[in-house]
Write a structure and sequence with these properties.
14 strands, alpha+beta, Beta-Lactamase, single chain, Heat Shock Protein 90
Length: 435
């Protein structure tokens, strides 16, 4: 940032300095030329033709430098067939007159190096004086030494001023950049302290410009802490859930119980259910942080309906609602939640299942209704606990609804139960954040 600012300041000041130098130099040169024009005009106004046909001045020129040899101010009047009339300041030198065919009816000014060591600024004009048909070339010349000295002084002043201005602007840009990035250095120091274990959040007051970044950083830290805590909790729960079956198997094996095989199968089934449950939660937690999570609800409903229809061909499954609804959930997790709900409705219902999709306050609601016996209101909360089954006469693990609840909560959703007004059985309402 400092380098770009310095480069841009230098380019702008260089361009401005060149333009200003050209304007001021031209102004000084024009002022110098106006002096020559004044002198040349005075010469023409004072000139007349004498009795011998030569030019003479009816009054002397006011500038005394015309009388001093090599004074730096000269004049000369030339014409074809006439001797040049020169100022005394030229002494034994003469201005180089243009050829006779060259005519300047208007004032013409140019630079000349005809005198060694003395650059000249020359102005000339061709005039026909009253009483003569001769075209006289009036010339006035002045040494450029004074003009060049003024331009040199101007350029030196411009260079020093613009260099000082550039230095001041670059220093200001440097200070501004360092001061502007100071909050980021504070954030870096806070992160270093967090990595060293001194604190777990960025708590230093920050300017409004970086405050949103700090808030997002703190939110990310809180999110990671929640994930770590959930991972520890799941690991502890899984270890606790596996401890009892393993103890039963160890005791049966130690006692050489005759039903050891049955015990191993029974307890292994229990451990498998627990492992499946915690793996489902772990997958959902791992995918929750994906900002691009998005799934089409209707597509998942159709896929689940086809799968469940193959398992329960006698069950009628109807669907209705918003076919364009999308949720911020991974497709695999959405399929698992909807699949558990519709499979339960088909398994425990009376043969009819109705699924509805609708929007409600930034959420997508998926309603699954059946015409079964329903669930008593007192049991509608406990049924979501792991391993709870109200109907043990049908195969199952008692983990389906627990997985639905846990995965929905991981994505910021919820699930609850009520009585179906249309079918008379159970209504399960799954709410998930809209994409």
């Amino acid at each position: 940032m400092i380098g770009i600012a310095a480069l841009w300041i230098s380019v702008l000041l260089l361009g401005g300095g060149v333009a200003l130098d050209r304007v001021l130099s031209d102004a000084i040169t024009r002022n110098f030329d106006e002096g020559l024009n004044y002198v040349l005009t005075a010469m023409i106004a004072s000139a007349e033709i004498g009795p011998d046909g030569e030019v003479l001045f009816n009054r002397p020129l006011a500038d005394q430098r015309f009388l001093e040899p090599n004074s730096g101010l000269y004049y000369q009047i030339s014409a074809k067939g006439h001797e040049d009339w020169r100022s005394r300041s030229l002494w034994d030198r003469a201005l180089k007159a243009p050829p006779p065919e060259h005519q300047d009816d208007n004032f013409h000014v140019y630079d000349s190096k005809q005198f060694p060591g003395e650059d000249l600024r020359v102005m000339e004009r061709t005039i026909i004086l009253p009483g003569s048909d001769t075209r006289w070339m009036f010339m006035v010349a002045a040494a450029r030494q004074g003009l060049d000295a003024q331009i040199k002084t101007l350029r030196s002043t411009l260079f020093k001023s613009f260099a000082l201005l550039a230095l001041g602007l670059i220093v200001l840009a440097t200070l501004q950049t360092l001061y502007g990035l100071r909050p980021l250095r504070k954030v870096r120091h806070e992160i270093v302290r967090m990595r060293g274990g001194e604190k777990n959040r960025v708590t230093e007051p920050m300017p409004a410009e970086v405050l949103p970044m700090v808030e997002e950083l703190n939110a990310l830290l809180a999110h990671n802490e929640r994930q770590a805590e959930e991972a520890r909790t799941h690991a502890g729960n899984l270890a606790h859930a596996l401890k009892t079956p393993l103890t039963v198997i160890m005791n049966a094996a130690t006692a050489k119980a005759p039903d050891l095989g049955d015990a191993v199968i029974r307890e292994a089934t229990t451990m498998r259910r627990q492992v499946d449950h915690h793996l489902a939660r772990a997958r959902a937690v791992g995918r929750r942080g994906a900002a691009q999570s998005r799934a089409e609800v209707w597509t998942s409903l159709e896929a689940v309906e086809r799968a469940v229809q193959r398992l329960y061909p006698d069950v009628r499954i109807d669907m209705d609602g918003d076919k364009s609804a999308s949720v911020r959930v991974e497709r695999q997790d959405l399929d698992e939640m909807i699949g558990n709900l519709i499979e339960n409705a088909a398994k425990y219902g009376g043969g009819s299942v109705f699924a509805t999709v609708r929007r409600a306050s930034g959420m997508i609601e998926i309603l699954v209704e059946d015409d079964g016996m329903g669930i008593p209101e007192a049991e509608r909360t406990r049924i979501f606990d792991r391993g709870v089954r109200l109907d043990s006469g049908k195969p199952g693990t008692g983990l389906g609804l627990a997985i639905v609840r846990d995965v929905a909560e991981i994505y910021g959703g919820s699930v609850d139960m009520a009585e179906s007004e249309d079918l008379g059985g159970l209504l399960v309402r799954l709410r998930l954040p809209a994409a």
